[in-house]
Amino acid sequence: MKLFDLLATASSNMFRSKLRTLLTITAIFIGAFTLTITTGLGLGVSQYLDRQVDAFGAKDLDKIREIDGIKSVAAYHNASIDYVVASDPDKKYQASVTPFLTGSNFSLDAGRYPDNDSKDLELMLPSTYLELLGLGSAESAVGKTVKFGVTNGLGKRTEVEGKISGILGASLVAGTSISPNDALMTRLRAVQAVGQPPVAGEVVQAATARFDAADTEKLKKIKEDLKKLQYEGMTVEDQIGSFKAVINGMIAVLNGFALIALLAAGFGIINTLLMSIQERTKEIGLMKAMGMSPKRIFLLFSMEAVMLGFWGSLLGSLAAIGVGTVVNKLVIESFLKDLVGLQLLTFSPVSVASVILLVMAISFLAGTMPAIRAARKNPIDSLRYE
Amino acid sequence: MREDAVLEAQNLVKTYGKGDSLFTALGGIDLTIRQGEKVAIIGKSGSGKSTLMHLLALLDKPTSGAVFVEGQDAAKLKNGQLGHLRGQKFGFVFQQFFLNGHASVLENVILPLKIAGVGRAERKRRALEALKQVELDDKAKNKAKDLSGGQKQRVVIARAIVGNPSVIFADEPTGNLDTATGQRIEDLLFSLNANQGITLIVVTHDADLAARCDRQIHIQDGRIVDHPEPPAATREPKAPEPAPDQPDAPQPPRRPTPRPRRKVHL
Ligand SMILES: Nc1ncnc2c1ncn2[C@@H]1O[C@H](COP(=O)(O)OP(=O)(O)OP(=O)(O)O)[C@@H](O)[C@H]1O
Ligand SMILES: [Mg+2]
User: For B80, which of A356, B127, B150, B227 is 20 to 30 Å away at the CA?
Assistant: First the structure.
């Protein structure tokens, strides 16, 4: 039998028992639908996270590429503030500050990063504060000043003024801390230190070390050395990486469920084919009597299985893409509105095609057992079958 | 081996089961069938007629012994080649119709050609030709299940001849048809033999049909017998019998009253 005739026969056999075929395809459909959704979710989130890593440091990698090993270590002081306020004295809010690190790279809504080499007291303000502090739009806020309320060791409160140099855009990974430059940070600490009991030596809460980020070998070595000295070395990529690992873990679990659904669908295929082989015992015998080789019989039934898988997965992934597009739109317009650039479900042609191919492969495997059975049937036993 | 032998069986044995339940369906059959011959295989129910036919048609493998098709030992062929040989040389009319009721008459007749890999237009042309021979070309588009028994059997014959076989095996071709329809099927089969030289191997209970063949092979308990016992119910005192050393001599005249035809469940 020619390949085309085999295909045509397999596909017409598939629709001989319509209800049974429909139910089997539905089972495959559910599995393929789930798998397409979960892989879409995985791809969407991980692409978003990758873009965040890029935003953090990609540009700076070139700048520090020529640096060999750790070049400089700068103290990373912190300060605690009581409140932050802009021109409207009624709008005072609690806030935390985190020093701005030269070399970090955030997406800014307006303005520029605070300059750590400048003597001016500058800061970067997360966009969430704009409305709270009555600052208006991001563009108009740049250049305005905000005041921090700081209490010193004697319990006296002083206000320190800083100028907004840039507005930090909303993002999953960028925090909600206000980031002052070194000059403003030093000033805040100085005000706060008045009247504090003297401490032995200088207290450092964190330190920034600069090194060649492209040299992963050296980076690993640095981390190991740090560990020996009982410090933990963690890069931004590590941080996002561990976040990503959690998300990937969750998606792996979801994919696992989808695969279990597909496994169940595989048994559906086995069942369908076994029943149809049982029903067609005489027909198989006849075809063999008429000279059809066991190989072709095997192909005929395998093709039927693969076709069940193909239709189930094609319809399942198309439905997933349809549903996913709608959900994406709804979610991004509502509660994930602030996460610019997040595409919750991303369907790439490659991942959809892989899902379809995977399901077809599972179907083929499920079909082998019944197909081998059909191929092995003795023509006479099949013809005598009642 | 004879020059014009299309089929030759040497000491064919077929047993079923093992140990205590071992059953010898055929106990050593030697047989030569020449091209263009009309051969009837007759015998009581359960005597091994169908078993013999299946072995000759290479549908089953003998427990021991050999079958030669045009001098070629079938045991030396692989499964695929065996199927190919069957598809090329043999046409089948089984005890049951084995038609696909939901497919059209034409589709049913096309099936062997499809298996043989004949192209679309060619196989349709040949199938219609075969249907014309059995005078069913006007029913080509009908569903097979909507035909009468006699029409179905003619479709089966069309399917058997569509591949231009050199041998047609027919197992009770008239077994489930009324006398008139059965007669028509017989005529059809014999005309194929007369016009196209197709070898006919017919398994039958029908004495008339057997009598129209060149030769009758009597099977009794899995062996060929020269002097079959007459059926017990109608045992006659003593019928004149041919000399034992002349197996091909004319047979005694058939009983005039045909036995009731067996109904075969479909
Ligand atoms: N697969 C099998 N297993 C066991 N016994 C079998 C098998 N096939 C056939 N037989 C036995 O072999 C014997 C011969 O069977 P066969 O079908 O050849 O008879 P037959 O002469 O064609 O009878 P009928 O005229 O009723 O068709 C029977 O006793 C049958 O029960
Ligand atoms: Mg029989």
Answer: B127
Please report, as a single letter, which amino acid is at residue A120: D
Closest partner residue to B83 (CB to CB) among A5, A16, A288 is A288
Strand partners, B16: B23
Q: Residue A138: which of A127, A124, A122, A128 has the closest Cα?
A: A127
Q: Enter the pTM of the model.
A: 0.67
Whether residue A230 lies inside any domain: the answer is: no
Whether A37 and A77 share a structural domain: no
- What's the number of domains chain A is made of? 2
| For the CA of B219, the nearest ligand | 1
Minimum Cα–Cα distance from B265: chain A residue: A386
Q: Give pLDDT, residue A232.
A: 64
Average pLDDT over residues A6-28: 90
Best mutation target, A1, A279, A284, A290, to test chain B (most B CBs within 10 A): A290
- Tell me how far CA of residue B8 lies from CA of A164, B25, B43, B91, B206, in angstroms: 105, 19, 20, 17, 25
Whether this model's ipTM surpasses 0.85 comes out as no
pLDDT at B256 > cutoff 60: no
- Cβ neighbours for A146, distance < 8 A, ≥ 6 positions apart: A84, A85, A86, A123, A125, A133, A161, A162, A164
- Does any domain span residue A122? yes
Q: Give B89-120 pLDDT, tens digit per residue.
A: 999 998 788 998 889 999 999 999 999 999 99
Among the partner residues A5, A16, A286, nearest to B98 by beta-carbon distance: A286
Last residue of a domain, one of A209, A232, A267: A209
Query: B95: CA distance to ligand 2 center in Å?
Result: 7
B5-225 CATH pick, 1.10.10.10, 3.20.20.80, 1.10.287.3510, 3.40.50.300: 3.40.50.300
Q: For A349-376, what is each residue's pLDDT tens digit?
A: 998 999 999 999 999 999 999 999 889 8
Q: What is the mean pLDDT of residues A253-274?
A: 87
- Domains in chain B: boundaries: 5-225
CA nearest A77: which of A106, A105, A97? A97
> Which residue range is the domain that position A49 belongs to?
3-53+240-384
Is there a domain that residue A200 lies in? yes
Q: Let me know if residue A219 belongs to a domain.
A: no
